[in-house]
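Worked example 2:
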Amino acid sequence: MLFQGFLNLNKPFGWTSHDCVARVRKLLRLKRVGHAGTLDPAATGVLPIALGKATRLLQYLPENKAYKATIRLGVRTTTDDLEGEIINSQACPELSLAEVKTALAQFEGKIEQIPPNYSAIQVDGKRLYDLARKGEIVEVPVRTVEIFHIEILDWREGDFPELDVAIACGSGTYIRAIARDLGAILKTGGTLAALIRTQSSGFDLTDSLTLTDLEAKLQGGTFQPLASDAALQHLLSVTLPTISAQKWCQGQRVSLNSDTTGIVRVYEEEIRFLGVGQLQDEVLIPQMVFEPIS
């Protein structure tokens, strides 16, 4: 069977996003497999996987994400999580939740963030983690990210207190950097102890499948990928009559009486998903023809 659509994968601990793509490709015997929103090996949770022609839709997925994170205070590491070497460790049993709340409030909204040295960001064409492993020191570019909401879920006192938080954020946000910077503000040091991505690109953890789930469904013949347009529900949709749909699928611009502007989902007679277009001045311009009409 030639699979096409999306898989909402619950990435296992210790696997890279590339590992997951390779495993899905092998299980489904499918060459065209891609993912949205890279997750660190130590993180688990939602990893959207595109199958077949749906890989062409990855660029149109929504960018917002949500996480549940555990931050350990009193510890600094080279990678800003527990996978790295400890740079500094100092017990801080006197630290109070009230102090943490005050400091954490500084992270909501649009903030300037320096990504971790061990990250996939490129500087002069080289990945930061490759440079860091070689011991090369480079200036990591500051980026603007947006944190929509941070909620404290739990607080555990001790020599190295831990904080559980739920974070809703925009694309490009590093939760490891939040842990590091929170520790810097509190003057205790901080590092990420655990991370679960609960939402990504319109997919939710509650609806995800593990690799074990996927294998079981494949063996039972019950696996069906999510529809290719399932991840595009954040976009407005337009419907074309068949004649206009044929022209649009051939790369032609078509007139459409609509007040909508911007990127939209395109359908034929409200049933068949054709692709993605840009609507401007009542003209629908093809951006990506997903399902041409023969």
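The chain has a mean pLDDT of 92. The first strand starts at residue 5 and ends at 11.
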